[in-house]
Amino acid sequence: MGEQSASRMEGDRYQHLYSWYVLLPLLDGNSPFETAFVEHPEAGAADDVTLHPRPGAAVTRQYIQVKWHVDHRALYTLEGLMEGVGRGRSLLQKLFAAWRVLRDQGPVEVWLVSNWPADPELGRYLQGRDCRLLEDFFAEAPTGGLKAARSRWLEHLGVEWDVLRAFCADLRLRLGFASIAELEERVDERMCMRGLRQGPEPRAIALDGIREWIEVGGEAKRLDRAKLQTFIRDRGLLEPETDTPGVGLWIHGWARRQWRGQPAVELDWTSHFDRDTRAVPTESVWREQLLPELREARRRLASRPTEALIDFRGKVPLSVSLAVGACFPEVAGDRFRVEQATRGETVLWSSDAKPTRRQLHGTERESVPDARDLLVVFQLTGDAGPDVERFLAGHPRRFRAVLVLEPEGGPHDGAVGSDGDAVAFAVLARERIRQARVRWRTATTHLIPYAPAGCCLFLGQRLNALGPVVAYERTAAGGYAPFLTLETG
């Protein structure tokens, strides 16, 4: 029973996450949909979330059934859609029954959304563009598996071909949809675009609201833009406003994202990065193409008002955050405001925040007396020790000394609690590196970051007068490889 209860809870969470995901666009003034329902009272099996157009909008009513599966032991098939649970109706029968009731009220789309994908026999008839069944599905003289399945569908539903064809034309199968973790990320992106807080706590507030609307029932389940705006305001979901003006710098690396407002400068580097394989551009691509683009971005932003912060947004590797900071140094008066996920919520960090009194613990050890390079491990949110030892074993005579920097109490995911902590660690790290260079008389510094992106950005701003700094990125195999060289003077 415990596992069944857990499955039901996961299913409810997935359904409510998807509901919030499709409700958020109602906040847009140009949304073609005017209202929505959660668990519509007249929609039968297609009731989980429904969308209803504005008068004159060129869209159709959508009635959506959301189904979650805890694992991927099976696929949706032409035959499987007719399988019932116990003596209950099949999924196909439930969707068909909902459609027969809803179509009398006008044009309608009945959607099935699920994390289970379609098998090849069903998938070959689904359009990736809009989740409709392809025209081939409606062939007058089907052959093979389709012929048998269509005959079984007609018998299973007890209808003639013209009725089945009309139903299938209104059916939408959005199969192989996101996992819970992926859906949470998509929800966060939509919340960010609309000026809302992101992370586990704001999402939990939104899902509690959906559960409450369902429990109260009646008109509470009917939602529109005004009602959502009131809910968002009353539950504290709006991102706090800031009086400090800013200009946007967006850099797309691992992925493209849309943030609130419009950037003054936008750089799309996604063709050079692959998150799955951890592939990054070569040093020559960085030096000959990306770094000049970053310098041009700084030139374009140089005319901003003196009091304006640079609102940096980007899904980029840690080394790119270091490079951005180095290109916009603190000594030149450049100040950043950046999104940072911390303690389960996305907040804004400022590079001019007052440093806290947090301390940075440094451990040094000599490696090769006649070497000329210094290895620095900047680990705040995790222990890079095992990977670093493997890295050192692969470069046995490379480094004069190794400096490991970490917060007092050791590295962990909550070690950097605020922008004040991040600034304090960046300032202390720069000074520790400078002292180590002098003490060990090294020429080049090799830096392995294991810290929040915002902290790396702030550190990059302070990497001045340290000579060449080679920044490393973690590889898909768990090691480290040099990514770019920063000339800090």
TrEMBL record:
InterPro entries per record: SAVED (IPR040836)
Pfam families linked to this entry: SAVED (PF18145)
Residues of the SMODS-associated and fused to various effectors domain: 295-486
Protein name: SAVED domain-containing protein
Organism: Corallococcus exercitus
